[in-house]
């Protein structure tokens, strides 16, 4: 029997930087659409999937998903306004009622190693599951950096897209997160009620929820298997990098 985990996949991006003729979530990566790679990665770890799509192509995504359901419960919901990842993730709240935990992954994080996923599962299982867990990566010229205090707690998220001053080397997320049901259904909505929009993007971002939650709850982090796992497919250059990693370089 599959674990009663819910996987939320925000996938409302148009993929304009990739220059493809299909929605980003359906762009092939090494011959397989992004969403198919995501479903294959998590098929043994979750029992239900909510894909968040743009209304402009939601019908195409639904048709594609209809052929991939199998034992998984898969549904597609629409994010009608591009207000940010936080609001996209919260569209899955109705699906979380019977979940043992809630996982979130960006649709373009297709290079995550199965061992990293297995480690995330161990952090959210057992008698004392982590309220929030995520793999991280240390990299130069980071796009995201988690600033920590002397005790190691995450106190701020720096974001290049928002114009923050970034360190030369930083600790970044991998677009993969796990939350307990209470964190997802109670604390995330509470945070959403007080969060401000990003000063550059004017979007309601999800990542600042992490230091907000860290004030009262433990955030469990662990290193990923390989730095390439953290590369999202947003440009033709990144697509080539990820395809090369998946087909030639990925460790067993």
Report on this structure.
The chain is α/β, with parallel strands linked by helices. It has helices at residues 34-42, 58-66, 85-90, 114-124, 181-192, 209-214, 236-249, and strands at residues 5-11, 28-29, 32-33, 48-53, 73-78, 101-105, 132-140, 144-148, 154-159, 169-173, 176-179, 219-223.
List keywords for this structure.
8-stranded mixed sheet; single chain; alpha/beta; 252 residues; 12 strands
Q: What are the SSEs and their pairings?
A:
Layout: E1 5-11, E2 28-29, E3 32-33, H1 34-42, E4 48-53, H2 58-66, E5 73-78, H3 85-90, E6 101-105, H4 114-124, E7 132-140, E8 144-148, E9 154-159, E10 169-173, E11 176-179, H5 181-192, H6 209-214, E12 219-223, H7 236-249
Parallel strand pairs: 1-4, 1-6, 4-5, 7-12
Antiparallel strand pairs: 2-3, 6-11, 7-10, 7-11, 8-9
- Can you identify the CATH superfamily? Spore Coat Polysaccharide Biosynthesis Protein SpsA, Chain A
Query: Would you report the number of β strands?
Result: 12
Taking all residues together, what is the mean pLDDT?
91
Indicate the proportion of strand residues.
15-25%
Helix fraction by DSSP (H/I, runs of at least 4):
25-40%
Measured distance between first and last alpha carbons: 26 Å
- CATH topology, by name, is Spore Coat Polysaccharide Biosynthesis Protein SpsA, Chain A
| Overall spatial form | globular
Total domain count: 1
Q: What is the CATH C level class, in words?
A: Alpha Beta
Q: By helix and strand content, what is the structural category?
A: alpha/beta
Q: How large, in whole angstroms, is the Cα Rg?
A: 17 Å
The number of helical segments is 7
Which consecutive residue ranges, at least 5 long each, have pLDDT under 50?
Answer: none
Main sheet properties: 8 strands, mixed
Order of helices and strands: EEEHEHEHEHEEEEEHHEH
Instruction: Tell me which CATH architecture applies here.
Output: Alpha-Beta Complex
């Amino acid at each position: 029997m599959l674990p009663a985990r819910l996987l939320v996949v925000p996938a409302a991006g148009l993929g304009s930087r990739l220059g493809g003729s299909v929605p980003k979530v359906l762009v092939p990566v090494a011959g397989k659409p992004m969403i198919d790679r995501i479903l294959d990665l998590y098929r043994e770890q979750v029992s239900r999937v909510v894909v968040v799509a743009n209304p402009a192509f939601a019908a195409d995504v639904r048709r594609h998903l209809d052929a991939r359901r199998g034992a998984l419960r898969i549904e597609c919901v629409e994010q009608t306004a591009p207000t940010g990842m936080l609001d996209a993730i919260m569209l899955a709240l109705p699906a979380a009622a019977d979940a043992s935990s809630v996982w979130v992954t960006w649709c373009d994080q297709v290079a995550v190693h199965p061992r990293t996923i297995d480690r995330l599962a161990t952090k959210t299982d057992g008698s004392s599951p982590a309220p929030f867990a995520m793999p991280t990566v240390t990299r130069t010229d980071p796009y995201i950096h988690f600033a920590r205090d002397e005790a190691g707690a995450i106190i701020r998220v720096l974001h290049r897209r928002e114009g923050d001053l970034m360190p030369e080397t930083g600790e970044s997320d991998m677009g993969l997160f796990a939350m307990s049901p209470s964190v997802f259904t109670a604390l995330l909505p509470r945070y959403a009620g007080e969060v401000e929009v990003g000063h550059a993007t004017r979007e309601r971002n999800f990542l600042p929820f992490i230091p907000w939650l860290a004030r009262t709850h433990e955030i469990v982090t662990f290193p990923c298997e390989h730095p390439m796992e953290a590369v999202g497919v947003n440009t033709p250059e990144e697509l080539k990098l990820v395809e090369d990693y998946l087909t030639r370089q990925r460790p067993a």
